Amino acid sequence: MPQTTLVSIICEDYTGLISEVTGMLYDAGVNLGDTTFAVLGGAAEFTSICEFPDGVDIAQTEKDLRTLPGLSVQPRARISVAPFDYAAVHGETAQITHRIEITGEDSPGLIARLSEVFVGYGANIVRLNSERIPGGSGRSARYVSRIAVSIPPEKAQACLATVANTAGELRLTCHWVAR
Question: How far apart are CA 29 and CA 81, in angstroms?
Fold first, then answer.
């Protein structure tokens, strides 16, 4: 019987990381489900819910990942392959209904203030990506947040208006598209 696992890698970013990891997993007969990848500062994070076929050993797969060319030279790389005891497929509240982009000057508490808005409308943040972009020539840093959310249809208009108002209070611009 196939086993659902979580493959998680945090390491220094390098060209070919995704290709090496997914190629090795494919060669082992592993099927990838929900997968994310992000560069975080000078590091990279790869996470995937995978279906391991019968006969593919979790511990051996973790050892094999450590031998990949780009990962084998990174003693600080954190590699984990472990059983995943949650549902392998996300539910209705993880269906993205809107994509929101918020930009402007960086300020402490930005993500906290914006994320609080969604709770009041029963909206669920499905994906969030924030990036602090250094300013040049004496300009302050710019902040870009991209948020994919699931908003109940009957609350979408009010929720988005509140997000835009909150962003405005923080001197940020806000744009969204319905999916």
Answer: 15
The whole-angstrom separation of Cα 143 and Cα 11 is 24
Q: Helices marked H in the chain — which ranges?
A: 17-27, 58-66, 69-72, 110-120, 156-169
- How far apart (Å, rounded) are the C-alpha atoms in residues 23 and 64? 12
- Tell me if the pTM is above 0.90: no
Q: What's the domain range around 18?
A: 3-83
What's the structural domain count of the chain? 2
CA distance 21 to 7: 10
One domain, residues 26 and 77: yes
Q: Of the given ranges (2-11, 135-144, 148-157), which has the lowest mean pLDDT?
A: 135-144
Q: Amino acid letter at 140?
A: S
